[in-house]
Structures are given as C-alpha cells and as structure tokens.
Specification:
Layout: H1 5-18, E1 30-34, E2 40-45, H2 54-59, E3 71-76, H3 88-95, E4 99-104, H4 114-120, E5 124-127, H5 131-137, H6 139-147, E6 151-159, H7 177-188, E7 192-196, H8 197-203, E8 210-211, E9 214-215, E10 221-225, E11 244-246, H9 251-260, E12 265-268, H10 271-280, E13 286-292, E14 317-325, E15 328-335
Parallel strand pairs: 3-4, 4-5, 6-12, 6-13, 7-10, 7-12, 10-11
Antiparallel strand pairs: 1-2, 1-3, 8-9, 13-15, 14-15
Helix pairs in contact: 3-4
Length: about 350
C-alpha cells in the first residue's frame, strides 16, 4: 500500500516536531497519529534521553483505545529494544495501531528491527518516504553512533588562487556579506565550534552565530584547541556559553571527549593550521570551501600539510552542492570514500 497524501503531510509535520527535540545521545524523532480517515489525532516528539520516545509521547495524549486502527507516522523506524524506556514497536502494537509509516531505518544493531516486529504482529509498514530529510536532521547522531565522535564540518574561506590571507596577514574580508551570513547560519546549526589558539590570539574571534548584529537563538559552544594560553580579556570569554579549552594536539581524543559530552555536530573554523590538522587526521565528514573571485598570491595558503605527498594520495571529494552566494561560490563536499551507510553497534535509549 503506497504512502498517501495525508501520510506525506503528517511526515513533514513529524520532521518539524522532531527538530524541537534536543540533540544529544538520542536521535531527534517526531511522530503523528492519524485516524483511518487521515485526520490528526495526536502529535509527539522525543525530548531527550530517559523521556518517552516520540511514538509513546503521541500515544500518551490519546484516551485508551483511541489509537486502535490508526496510523503512526514517524521520522525514524520505531525502536525494538528496552533501555531507559520500553520498545516503541511494542507500544504501537499494544495500542492497536494498524499501520506505521516511517522515513528512515534505525541503523542500530540493538535498537533496529522494529519494522519486522510490527509486520510480524500484522501491522502494515511502509518506509523510505522523505528519508533524505530525516537523514539530514539526525546526520550528527548517525555519525556519532557509527564513529563515536561528532559529525565534523571543516570550513574555510579562500581566494580563487587558494589563499586564506594576503601577505601581511589580513584576511577580512575575503568573502562578501552573503557568504558570511551563510557561515553564521551554519554555525548556529552546530553544537560546538572549534578554533586553534593561533586564531584566538591573532583574530580574537567571538565565535558566536549572528543574524546581522543580533545573536541567533542557537549558539555553538566554543572549543579552543592548543597549548598557548587564551588571554583573560579574549572575546571568546564573553560568549553565551562557557568555552572548552583543550591543551592537546590529539584531535581524536578531543572529538571523543566532545562525543561523551553529547555534542553531535562540530564546526571547525580555526584557520589553515587547524583545518589542515583535521583533514590530515581523517576527521572531516563535510567540507565547506567558500571561494571568492579575488587573487592574492603569496604563501598564506588556505590549507597546509594534509598528509598528501603525491597525487595518488590526494584526498578526493564528492561535491554535494555548489551554492552561489553573491559574488562568491560555496562548495559543499564530503570525502569520496566515506561510507555513510555503516551501522552503529549499539542503539541509544
């Protein structure tokens, strides 16, 4: 039975609801319960670890028996394991749900399998509708589950000839206002933003996400990496969130600690040294290269040593999107050899 228009609308709504939930150890999930006639009976979303999952949250708003024969529309396959909460697949079966439509398969070896359990109980199940949108919403969680670290975006701005600054070190502004506004929007979508101590000392960045002169509601936590001390009057100390300082060059240990703290998305914006270090360490899930139509020449390259000594060792990228931004151009890419489908070994609860 194909997905109908009412179910598509409900899934779009479920994705909106899912985005209300916090990013953390659990995925953001939304759910809508539809009557057999396609009317909305209840809505729910997951509010964080240990709280009811989206399906159970929606069911809790209905009287006993009111969900019998209804359809549950969910952004992620209903879970099939008991953690701090019970399995959602079992809750849906017990409530008498007759049909489940979900966007994205749960990749967890423990938490997955809900669809099979539902089908075994006689529930009609459809999957894959709006899977790309659901994947984009929880991509950080999927990366964290698969790799034990946040989803990492490495960003830089460069001239057409690959320079990050002029010979005197000046770099404001290589790109135009449209590109800078795009950076601030993307910053606000991250949980943390990383720079090196060299950038803190040379540029004194605020590391906030702004909309014009105003702070955006969502702000990434600043992360400063390096052994040189940060001045007490540095702008980063005035950030809405207390910064995290890592006196270390072990990037794998740093991102592992960020994962344990519940960070799902890390935005690396620390200049050529730090960007190159993340690329060299194989710690880049996404690359954002903002290219301005200017020529600077000189030696101040946008990237330095990324561990490539011959053309055969080149880090190949797959372009996801080319985005015109005023006079500038943004390349959104990911490493060509990235396996985005590998499943994690455990599920969250």
């Amino acid at each position: 039975m194909a997905v109908n228009e009412a179910e598509r609308r409900a899934l779009t709504r479920a994705l909106e609801l899912a985005a209300r939930g916090p990013r953390g150890v659990n995925p953001q999930v939304g759910a809508v319960i539809l009557s057999p006639a396609g009317d909305v009976l209840a809505e729910g979303w997951h509010r964080g670890a240990g709280t009811p999952h989206a399906e159970v949250d929606a069911l809790s708003k209905l009287a006993s028996g009111a969900a019998r024969g209804a359809t549950a529309v969910v952004t992620l396959e209903p879970c099939n394991h008991t953690g701090r909460t019970g399995p959602c697949a079992a809750a849906l079966i017990e409530a008498g749900i007759a049909r489940v439509v979900y966007a994205l398969d749960d990749p967890g070896a423990v938490s997955g399998g809900g669809a099979e359990r539902l089908r075994d109980a006689g529930v009609s199940v459809e999957s894959g509708e709006q899977a790309d949108a659901a994947h984009a919403l929880i991509e950080g969680w999927l990366t964290a589950q698969r790799l034990g670290r946040p989803h990492i975006t490495v960003k830089w701005a460069q001239s057409l000839d690959g320079r990050a600054a002029a010979d005197d070190g000046s770099s404001r502004w290589i790109t135009g206002p449209e590109a800078r506004a795009d950076v601030h929007r993307r910053r606000s979508e991250a949980d943390a933003i990383a720079v090196g101590t060299g950038t803190v000392l040379s540029d004194d960045p605020a590391l906030t996400a702004r909309d014009g002169d105003a702070l955006r509601p969502a702000q990434p936590v600043p992360v400063v990496i390096g052994s040189r001390p940060t001045p007490a009057d540095a702008a980063v100390h005035r950030h809405p969130h207390a910064p995290l300082f890592y006196d270390s060059h072990d990037l794998h240990a740093i991102v592992g600690d960020l994962h344990r703290r519940g960070f799902q998305r890390l935005f690396v914006e620390g200049g050529p040294t730090l960007a190159s270090a993340f690329l060299r360490a194989g710690l880049a899930d996404e690359v954002l290269a903002y290219v301005a139509p200017v020529l600077l020449g000189g030696d101040r390259l946008a990237l330095t040593d990324i561990g490539v000594s011959s053309i055969g060792e080149a880090l190949r990228l797959s372009i996801d999107e080319w985005v015109p931004l005023g006079r500038d151009l943004l390349a959104v890419a990911h490493p060509a050899d990235t396996d985005r489908s590998a499943a994690p070994t455990e599920g969250a609860d």
